[in-house]
Amino acid sequence: MHTINHLYRRAGFGATLSEINAAVAKTPSELIDDLLDDKLLTGNYLPADPRYAFQWKDVVPYTGTDLYQKARQETTYNNAAMELRRHWTVQMCQPETMLREKLTVFWMNHFVIEARKVKYPICIYDYLSYFRQNPWGNFKKMVADVTTSPAMLIYLDGILNAGSAPNENYARELQELFTMGAFDKNGKSNYTQSDVEGLAHALTGWTVDTTQQSPKILPAIYNSGLHDQSKQVIYDNIERQYNLTASGDAMDKDVINHIFEQRSEQIAWFICTKLYQYFVYADTSGAIEQAVISEMADLLRASNWELKPVLSALLNSSHFFDEENIGALIKSPYEHIIGLLRPFEILLPENTSDGQGELMAGSLYNYALAGSQELLDPPNVKGWPGYHTWISATTLPFRETYIQTALLIGGNIAAEGVDGYGQNNYPIFLLDGMVTSWGQSFTNYAGAFDDLVHEIATYLCAHTPSAKALAHVKSKFASNISYEWSDQTITTSERVGILRQLANEIMLLADYQLS
Amino acid sequence: MKRRDFIKSLPLGVAAAAVPFSIGGLFSGKAFGRSPALDVLLNAQGNSNNVLVLINLQGGNDGLNTVIPFQDPQYDINRKDVGYYTPSEKALLTPFQLRGDLALNPPLGTDFYNMFKDGKLAVLQNVGYSNPNRSHFRATDIWNSASDSELVVFTGWMGRYLETQVPENYPIDIGSSPDPLAIAIDYSTSLVFQGSRSVMASAVIDPSKYNAAQNYADDTPPNTNAGNELQFVRGILTQSDKYGKRFKDVFALPGATQNTVTYPTTNPLAVQLQKVAWCIKAGLQTRVYFVSLGGFDTHVSQYTKDPTQGQGLLHTYLGEAISLFQKDIENMNVADNVIGMTYSEFGRRVNQNGSLGTDHGTSAPMFLFGKEINGEVYGHNPKLDAADLDVYGDLVEQFDFRQVYASILTQWFGIDDYLRKSILNKPEFTSVSDFQSPTDGFKFPVNGSGTMQNIIRNPVPMSVSQNGSLAFNLYQNQPNPFPGITTIKFALSEGGPVLLEVFDGRGSLVKTLVNGYRSRGENQVIFDGLALPSGTYYCRIAFNGKTQTRSMTLTK
After folding, report:
1. Which of residues 47-106 of A touch B (CB under 8 A)?
2. Which of B87-96, B419-428, B491-500, B520-529 is predicted most confidently?
3. Which of A3, A168, A392 to mutate to test the interface with B (most CBs of B within 10 A)?
4. CB contact under 8 A, B354 and A164
5. C-beta atoms of A287 and B360 within 8 A
6. CB of B292 less than 8 A from some CB of A
7. CA-based diameter of chain B, in Å?
8. Which of A329, A371, A401 sits opposite B211 (nearest CB)?
9. Residues 322-381, chain A: which have Cβ within 8 Å of B?
10. A191 — alpha (psi -120 to 50), left (phi > 0) or beta?
11. How many CB atoms are located within 10 Å of the residue B367 CB?
């Protein structure tokens, strides 16, 4: 149970006790196959479009100077971004597709875009949906697709990178952040400033057509007139004419192929390091970590950049389940927030006609924001650094407020605010009945209080908290609590109060911040 | 980056009194606490109230359009579309001239310009470092860690400085100061505050609304990855608990959140500096504040001249926020011990790009401000002729940024030579003149030539070593990474017993290099790792009850 809990926390956002109990009958490898099942990327497993997509899907960018029209457009963008965040949050709460969504978060924080710059909702939505549909696809294809995606072309100025006056923005980040990193594993630079400039020239030619109307506006298009066809030297001292994938031009070399040929080892090591840090542990400087990453990188190259075998191998490895690393990740704000909902079986329903799940997700937005994670708008092109930066003397008290509000203050987790479409966000209630059935799912509900504390803390935290920590939890109760809990005359509602307090105290432990 | 578990697995308790030196006397009567040397350093000079405000301009501020060499014909050629080109554009610069051939970007504002006129604003031109890196993230790390371009250092220069001011097990034990040593007005802190053991700053968005986290005593977690992270969270809990209670008291006092000026809520930098002003006025013993302004990565549509968008808007924010802050703390009579410094990871390419913007470049100007700043222009104008640029068309620096850091550490915080060298990762670094520019001690050339002058008006007297107190510094081994053999140097302010040991990545002792008396000044020892596997090793020196550790990379 300890290990299944670990798997579901890492490969998803936590699990209910009943989900964990159901999983006990299967082998880890079967569970991982279920999580990585390709059927989850198709048909009804994919979410329906956001409810108000019709309001922004076909909005043609306004290019005039009328301030009112401009402001209206900004409002549309902001509303759409909020809706996309809520829509995405609902997906994170669905158990079956948890790994798909966990990876979508990963890719959106790897191939970073920021809504505040990209603006056009359809581009952002298409971009996000791409990762949802290809979360464990082919990494090289991902890089190629991202390079010519409207969202990325807008975000890193590809649309302005034209002809003989290139803009280096994408060429630099493509190398530094999206493929190989600035340095290889020995600390040697992977590219020079000349490579950046050469690549910027080679990547010219793509733009976004903002004039085309329905059925789908804002497509990325290749325009040979914008492509600098002069010869470039990139990495290998050979002058070549480069084209971009799918451009159809008969040139010497496809530029993405060239990057993956020339820097194959570096790319594999870089992306596998990031995956390792996301799923196992942030600090990869040790010899064991390096050995595991090397194996992952070899596998990625051997599988011709297919990610699924690598993810499957990592999650199936004994290293992934090593006690050393269980509880060694620091929860992101969304992992923390959703991690509280899941154990209590609080559901954010998807695809309902009244948008209930989305409106509930809207209530969670402010907590994530207070924890410094606003989906679709990471701090910069490198994304959230995560790890220790998630926890500070500022964010930790916010997390505590959320826990206390959720568990103690009548269970009305959050209800503030009206969305851009005039609807109130839905409050999320942790009702007394939910607390009771949650409590009853533990074997020691009818047993001794000390055993119950131990059992619940073991379930909620990655490791059983220390004896002192558990003593601290118990110190928050009156000294006769053990006696009272076992007393047959104690009422159900009194038990609810105790359970709320108990969950609250456990979740305020440092242990609960870890995954 | 295996700092934490490494430290935990070292026999830390052995560090001070129990080190088995054969020579007695030095440690007698001394417990594990702060050494007298450090106490002298901290308290004897009466400077413990000096405050530094770091203002980080994120994204790479275009220096050529911040401090503008508008008379240079090369400026016109390179900046036709993103600068002040036409006569009418140039006329806009007239009220903002620093001298006949140099002006501040007008959106910085008259109030900011007047700080220069009043002698409170120093403009340092051409600050950078050799072999500049053009990655946002690497370049930011270089500025924050104060490392050479090629050397990856995982601690920050302020972290290393502040670490000398606290007990070894900070933040579990926060020492004598009731306040955070440093405050970042942000959700998380910056590398600049990373010490070798823990982060030396608290991230606080709004100290007046601070909500303390609950803390509790706990057992020491196991020495595993998971245990180390648990320890990390508990450290933050402790900080939050202790400082939170203190903030609550401080900001409950009447008038604690009043200012004498109005900081516009629409100015993202001003709202941060407003909170810094509260903290200073409240008398917090915080030494360093960190605020930041993002958005300087102007590849596209730079809008330098337009105070309402692009770089122009950011300069509006910057100039307005700094001038309001300075006015505010002066009105409140708390300005005497406060200076501020702006820095950005790089300037931008001399030649504009094809998108009405500029790409990543190299050196750029810095601003230092405050009543204790000698407000002048330091350094010559940027040399824009093609022959003076590097092969990529970027500026070549005149000053190394660590010259500025050195001035601050020495003349503002009163740090002595040995500690400063350690903090700045420059073994050979004894004064500003170690860098290429002709300088005199910590003085910089006013207007690029002629008079040499300190940036700090009344330098805090530097002491310690001269007073016979004990300080030391372990330098980074050379070469590093090393193929097998490397040289480790260390310096002592006085002769005394030294223990120098090498540990592997798991914290096991590999070799004892020195265990005995060494003389004053620089000492060196060869470390032979030919028989060892590649990996990260740690060299630790113990001297006078204190330790210092450096990592070394063996690459075969």
Report:
1. none
2. B87-96
3. A392
4. yes
5. no
6. no
7. 78
8. A401
9. 323-330, 371-372, 379-381
10. beta
11. 26
Scanning the structure block, which residue is given the tokens 């992270």?
B229
The angle that helices A395-407 and A356-370 make with each other, rounded to 10 degrees, is 140
Of A164, A281, A394, the CB nearest to B203: A394
CB contacts, 8 Å: B134 with chain A: 172, 193, 196
d(CA B292, CA B55): 5
Q: Do B226 and A400 touch (CB under 8 A)?
A: no
The span from the CA of B297 to the CA of B280, in Å, is 31
B374 in contact with chain A, both atoms CB, cutoff 8 A: no
Question: Cβ-count burial of B318 within 10 angstroms (0-12 exposed, 13-18 middle, 19+ buried)?
Answer: buried
Between A and B, how many residue pairs show a Cβ–Cβ distance under 8 A? Answer: 184
User: Which residue among B203, B214, B224 places its CB closest to the CB of A508?
Assistant: B214
What is the rounded CA–CA span in Å between residue A5 and residue A14? 7
Report cis status (omega within 30 of 0) of the bond before B445.
no
Which single residue is written with the structure tokens 């826990």? A403
Chain A residues touching residue B553 (CB < 8 angstroms): 187
B505 touches chain A (CB under 8 A): yes
Reported pTM: 0.79
pLDDT digit of tens for each residue in chain A (515 aa)? 899 999 999 999 999 999 999 999 999 999 999 999 999 999 999 999 999 888 888 777 777 888 888 888 888 898 999 999 999 999 999 999 999 999 999 999 999 999 999 988 999 999 999 999 999 999 999 999 999 999 999 999 998 888 767 889 999 999 999 999 999 998 889 999 999 999 999 999 898 887 766 555 688 888 888 888 899 999 999 999 998 766 566 778 899 999 999 999 999 999 999 999 999 999 998 899 999 999 999 999 999 999 999 999 999 999 999 999 999 999 999 999 999 999 999 889 988 888 889 888 888 888 888 888 999 999 899 999 999 889 988 888 889 888 888 888 655 565 556 777 777 788 788 889 999 999 999 999 999 999 999 999 999 999 999 999 999 999 989 888 888 898 888 898 899 999 999 999 999 999 999 99
Domains in chain B, CATH or no CATH each: 52-164+227-413+451-465 (3.40.720)
CB within 8 Å of chain A, chain B residues 194-223: 199, 202-205, 210-214, 216-219, 221
Query: How many residues are given for chain B?
Result: 556
Q: Is B499 on the interface with A (CB under 8 A)?
A: no
Question: Residues A164, B385, A196, CA angle at the centre, nearest 5°?
Answer: 35
